[in-house]
Amino acid sequence: MEKAMYENNQAIAYEYEAFTATGDIREIIFHKAPFVGAEGTVKGMIGVMTDITDRKRAEQELRQSEEIFKRILTGIRAGIVIVDPQTFTIVDVNSIAAGILGVSKEDLTGEPCTSVHWIRARDGLREEECPLLQGDIVHEEYRIERPGGSSVPINKTVISGVRAGQPLLYEVIFDMSAQKALERQLALAQRLESIGGLAAGIAHEINTPIQYIGDNLKFLEDAYSSMTAALGDSPLSGMTDAQAADFAFILEETPKALSQSCEGVARVAEIVKAMKRFSHMGGEEKFLLDVPSAIENVILVARNEWKYHAEIRQDRDPAVRHFLCYPGDFNQVLLNLLVNASHAVSEKYKDTEGKGTITIATREEQGDLVLSVADTGCGIPEKNLHRVFDPFFTTKEVGKGTGQGLALVHDIMRKHGGTVEVVSKQGEGATFILRFPLNEEEKNGA
User: Fold this and answer.
1) Can you tell me the distance from the alpha carbon of 258 to that of 265, in angstroms, rounded to the nearest whole number?
2) FRET partner for 300 with CA separation of 20 to 30 A, picked from 100, 118, 171, 319?
3) How far is CA 342 from CA 246, 271, 307, 348, 355, in A?
4) Alpha-carbon distance 181 to 187, whole Å?
5) Nearest Cα to Cα of residue 231 among 256, 217, 253, 248
6) Is 384 helix (H, G, I), strand (E, B) or coil?
7) CA geometry: angle at 349 spanning 343 and 355, to 5°?
C-alpha cells in the first residue's frame, strides 16, 4: 500500500485494529502521505493516526437502532411516506406504504405529495394540501383512492424529523381495512340483535290475535255451512223479490268472503312465523341450516321490496339441503343481495307496466355450495364492477344506499372461507355468485 503511495505520489487512508497495553482493541484510521523535499524528491512519509473507536461504536449502535426500528415498523405494518417540506415531493416510501397506496416505490418517489388521493373520512372531501400545512395530523382517518379505482381506509399521523441534517415530514399510515370489516360485522351483529328482538316481539304480539281470529273465522265458516244445510232447498220462500235477491247474494258471497279471510289470516300467520324464524338466526356458533327454508323466509321477509316490480324464481338443487354456517350471516347475505336486486329491477321498470325477474339458485359444485342471485335490472357499468364491494361505494341516490350492503356480503363470505363474484352487463342485469365451502358431512347430505 505504501509502495503505491510513493509511486503515485498520493495520500492514502485505511482503518485497522490496534491493541493497547491493557489488551483493549481500538479502531484506528491511519492517514499517510509522501513527504516531498524542496527539490521535488520524496524524502519520507507523514502519517496521522486517529482513534475512531467511539465513532465506530456510535455508528454500530445507530445501525442497530435503525434496523430495530425498521423491524418494529414492519411488524406493526406501518407504512412510511417521507416528504420534503421545502418542495413537498415524496422522497422515499417503504414497501408497506407502497402496498397500501397501490403504487410502486419507483413511481411514487419524486412525485408531489398531492399525487396521493387522500379523502378525509370526517367530511368525504379530498385533501388538497400537503401534510402539516393545515395543522398537526394525529391519528386521523382517511380513505386512499388507488389508481385502479379501489379505496383503502387508513389511519394517518404526520411527524417532523431530521435525516442526514435535512428536515423531513414522515407520514405514518396504517391500513384499517381489517378493523373496518370487524366494525361492520359488529354493527351488523348489533343491528340484527335489535331487529331480531323487535321482530320476535312483534311476531309474538301478532301471533295470538291472529290465532283466535283464524279460529273464529273457521268456526263461522263451519257454522255457515251448517246453517245453510238446515235451511233446506227453499230458504227464499215467503220473501219479496228484492229480499230474495239480497239473500241469494249473501248466500253466494259469504262463503267466498269467509274463505278469503281464512286465506288472509293464514298468510299473516305464515309471515309471522317467517319473522320469528328469521329473527332467531343470530349467534356466533355454526350449525346446520335448512337452506330451502332459509331462502323461503328471506323471500317472504323482503316481499315488500320486490313484489311491485319483480317476480321471484327459484332454481334450487334438491340435493342441496343442509349447510353448516352462521345462519344469521347467511340470512343477511341473501337479504342484502335480494334487496339490491329489487332496487336494480325497480330502477329499470319504474316507468313501465312490466316486471323484472329475480332468480335465486343453488347447486353443489366442486365441493362448494354455490348460491346465486340474478336479476334482469339495470346492471352495473363495467367501470364500477371492481368497486362494488368497496365500503361506502354506491351508485344509488342519496338516502337510498349507504355503500355498506355489498361490503358486508364480502366480509361475511370471507368469514365463511368463501368467495363472492359479480357478473353484469349494463342494461341487462347482474348476477352475484357466492361459493361456500362444504365439509364431508354436508356433502353426504347430513
Assistant:
1) 11
2) 319
3) 46, 19, 9, 10, 11
4) 10
5) 248
6) helix
7) 95
- Using the CB atoms, write b or e for 34-50: b if 16+ within 10 Å: beeeeeeeeeeeeeeee
Amino acid in the structure at residue 340: N
- Phi and psi, residue 349, nearest 5°: -105, 10
Instruction: For 139-174, give one letter per residue: b (16+ CB within 10 A) or e.
Output: ebebbbbeeeeebbbbbbbbeeeeeeeeebbbbbbb
How far is residue 445's CA from residue 320's CA, in Å, rounded to a whole number?
Answer: 8
Residues 6+ apart with CB under 8 A from 18: 25, 26, 28
Per-residue pLDDT in tens (0 to 9) along the chain, 446 residues? 777 777 778 888 888 888 888 888 888 888 888 887 777 777 888 888 888 888 888 777 777 776 766 676 666 678 888 888 888 899 888 888 888 888 888 888 888 888 888 888 777 788 777 766 556 677 888 888 888 777 888 888 888 888 777 888 888 888 888 777 777 666 665 565 555 555 666 666 676 677 778 788 888 888 877 777 766 666 666 667 777 777 777 777 888 888 888 777 777 777 666 666 555 555 557 788 889 988 988 888 788 888 888 999 999 988 888 888 888 788 888 888 998 899 899 988 887 888 899 999 999 988 889 999 999 998 888 887 777 877 666 665 544 554 567 878 888 888 888 899 999 988 889 999 999 988 755 544 44
The answer to whether 294 touches 280, Cβ cutoff 8 Å, is no
What does the alpha-carbon distance between residue 152 and residue 141 come to, in Å, rounded to a whole number?
11
* Cβ partners under 8 Å of residue 27, min gap 6: 15, 17, 51, 52, 53, 55, 56
Output DSSP code: residue 433. Answer: E
- What's the chain's length in residues? 446
Q: Which three cell numbers stand for residue 24?
A: 483493549
Q: Which strands, in side-by-side order, build the sheet including 429-437?
A: 310-316, 356-365, 368-375, 429-437, 419-425
Distance of CA 373 to the CA centre of its chain: 19
Report the candidate in 353, 444, 405 with the shortest Cα–Cα distance to residue 188.
Answer: 405
Q: What is the 3-state secondary structure (H, E, C) of 247-292?
A: HHHHHHHHHHHHHHHHHHHHHHHHHHHHHHHHHCCCCCCCEEEEHH
For 58, the grid coordinates are 456510535
